[in-house]
Write a structure and sequence with these properties.
Elements lengths: L1 H16 L1 E6 L9 H13 L4 E5 L5 E5 L2 H10 L4 E4 H12 L6 E5 L5 E4 L10 H9 L4 E3 L1 H5 L8 E4 L12 H4 L3 H16 L5 H17 L3 E5 L1 H11 L8 H4 L50 E4 L8 H6 L6 E3 L18 E5 L6 E8 L2 E6 L25 H11 L11
Parallel strand pairs: 6-7, 6-8, 8-9, 9-14
Antiparallel strand pairs: 1-3, 1-4, 2-3, 2-5, 10-11, 10-12, 12-13, 13-14
Helix pairs in contact: 2-3, 2-5, 2-13, 8-9
Amino acid sequence: MNKSLFCIFILLITFNSRASFILLPMDESTQQNHLKAYGITYWCLSKDYKASWLLNYRGGSFLLPDAEEIRKECKIRGVSFEIISDSEEASILNEISSPSQNMESVILEKAPKIAVYTPKGKQPWDDAVTLVLTYAEIPFTPIYDEEVLSDQLLMYDWLHLHHEDFTGQYGKFYAAYKNTPWYIDQKRDSEALAAKLGYAKVSQEKGAVAKKIRDFVVGGGFMFAMCSATDSFDIALSADGVDICEAMFDGDPSESNYQSKLNYNNSFAFKNFTLERKPEVYEFSDIDMTTKRRILMEKDYFTLMEFSAKWDPIPSMLCQNHTQLVKGFMGQTTSFDTSLIKSNVLIMGTCELNGESRYIHGEKGKGMFTFFGGHDPEDYQHQVGDPPTVLDLHPNSPGYRLILNNVLFPAARKKKLKT
């Protein structure tokens, strides 16, 4: 009898201590490849495995079921993982649920369908998002104007905007590059595409694209933009029906007094901005802080804001990181003048040296958007023709983590934003 009880006791201990979960730790000292950890989590969702995002627990770790193929995939991709038992999982969740802890466990339900708005023929390294999606092995579909205008955005949950100029001014590259073959080809191709789609001007065609993207967000989509796609998108919406382009861009002069005709109610994030009238100036408006900031590269950092994980899970998800201090980086639109950001937009990252905003988020209709200033988080001052960033050298990049937070958060079971 005693022997039978002993055997049952051993079996119970074995059952209770068996490995039941895989933890992908996301703290600084443990995870050897933060970026590919997002790819593992996305892969699990695509395979219909359950997953949880443990907000503020060890840098925003991921909890996955224990399966041999998940272990194998982690080893192949070089992602650090820990095997934990039922009791250890319960202990972690108990710690997270404590009212005294700024933590939360968020269930991830499905792998979002991802589209990247990018011109045909662009390479992944032309854009930080396509670069990191490729590196993390997260699938995406490149789309451009024809797909957007034919309502194909309805097929996707999440959209990233390439470093686009939605104003029809060809990125304001006129002064420096107007005689270069790539600029001439880009202008010719853009004009041909606009004509093919039934528009007399590129600015009109880009404006129509911006409005389709607006409708996608209002209808419940998630939109993420970086660099010049942020302010040029809002400018295009505000200038709907107003000609702000000079003759070298669209063949005729701009509309007189066009500044006074802007409708800031149409924009997502910015208000009361003043457009840059000079075509030879590499700037769209005073939204961008690039020419106004005086920050040395070695001191260029921005701080992520801290939110309540239990009450505000969305900004908490978007700010998950293994550090609150992130290296700054430049772009055509490096950062945003905080005074020109609408009051209903959430500021999630600021540079304390000059108060500029680097990382912002808001709601529009049923959907959401995030704007992130700068071009490439691991290339401080990216220039045209520079070699691509090699992410194998930056597998733990805090700046690239912010991009991947945006990719993954649409998978979360929705909770209402309280802030």
